[in-house]
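Interim report, section 4.2 (structural modelling).
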Amino acid sequence: MTKEWNLEQYDTYTEAPAEEPERQFYYMAKCRKYVKELAEKLGHAPTCCVTTFGCQMNARDSEKLVGILEIIGYEIIEDENADFVIYNTCTVRDNANQRVYGRLGVLNGFKRRNPNMKIALCGCMMQEASVIEKIKTSYRFVDLIFGTHNIYKFAELLFTTFVSDGMVIDIWKDTDKIVEDLPVERKYPFKSGINIMFGCNNFCSYCIVPYVRGRERSRDPKDIIREVERLVADGVVEIMLLGQNVNSYGKNLENPITFAQLLQEVEKIEGLQRIRFMTSHPKDLSDELIEVMKHSKKICRHLHLPLQSGSTRILKEMNRRYTKEQYVELADRIRREIPDIAITTDIIVGFPGETPEDVEETIDVIRTVKYDNAFTFIYSKRTGTPAAAMKNQVPEDVVKEGFDKVLKVVQDTAREQVSRYQGMVMDALVEEVNEHDSSLLTGRLSNNTLVHFPGEKALIGQIVNVSLDECHGFYYIGHMV
Ligand code: SAH
Ligand code: SF4
Ligand code: F3S
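Predicted structure of the assembly:
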């Protein structure tokens, strides 16, 4: 954000204000002094690297961390051999945790060579008691640990770390608090995620998110609109409204409002061109939402609708609260009303008790619904969830067989689905220079498919017309028209 933050006034306070967000600005002022002294000692601005694991919500949280680190005087770099490194962790599947432990070893090596280095850990993984115990015993070199509920206190925790010797740990079990108006530094100048709600109340039996992100809390629509307006004034053309289950947005507010109503309010904001959202739980997707999407000029033609399993029996065990038939009927209704929509999904293979017949049911749904893309995951046992205690865990080799089968069908149907746009001209928001070929730009279509085409870097952030010439599975090669 280009907004200038004036911390001078907080310098003169002797005691920390009790109110938020003032209290955090006070600590930012204090941290800034500390970082300035460190810069004098080092002869350059200290460097800092924020590494994000997990979902869009974590990515947005990291932007909040970066916003504060920039204000207090750190130079943000991509290299983890830095003066300050923070890992914003994910624990949705065990491989996410293993990656963090593996990389911590590397960080320790950097720290041995740089005595000024500080290491912090935050995010979902830190909400698990067993993780904290493990870090306390085996990773003593970590300086700061905090969780998902007190991330707004980052400046205060950072200051405590600067003035303490040992490991600083602050984890809250839950919170009902939402602190507004803290600084954020966006990764992309032209697009942004926006939290509309926090936490989750669904307790799908395999999922750890409700335990590490706490109970569902919706932000006040006025705060959301104000944030979008500010972002648009700052050059944002595309936003993504974020929540674990956006379809239940607003139900617990003092003045309840539906997600569809919120979308209609956001649509009115002038200058905003594209609206996306993540994630929709099928059980709460309303006809009102379909209607609003159908008539909207700004809501993108993309719906991420996690299936998880196509077997009604497994869905019941998963506590998803819909049947195979209900899901297929919903997808069908959406396609009837909005024919140009792309539907994508998440699938889990290997949930306890899943048989090859259940996997066939999942494959049947994939063939019927025809996803443009699907993320397929191997079931991961998460301690503390009901599914982890189920007796009938599926052997690894059986899971692998089912997984490969599902993946193959997903890839075949997605290729077929994505290729239906061949030869069409569509709007693409230019996001970046192509990673592999710098003569190409990468743009995102309304339906979330990527297209690569020749063009000038100056077009980044603009919406251009692109002809979709060659389909390569999940993406296109095209040219501007
Ligand atoms: N709130 C979103 C999903 C958040 S987690 C929703 O309900 O759709 C993202 C995805 O991770 C889930 O959709 C699910 O497919 C997958 N996932 C969650 N827990 C998992 C586990 N224990 N093992 C494997 N995949 C899991
Ligand atoms: Fe997890 Fe289910 Fe909540 Fe999604 S809706 S975050 S899968 S518990
Ligand atoms: Fe992972 Fe937490 Fe998101 S567990 S998927 S980072 S909500």
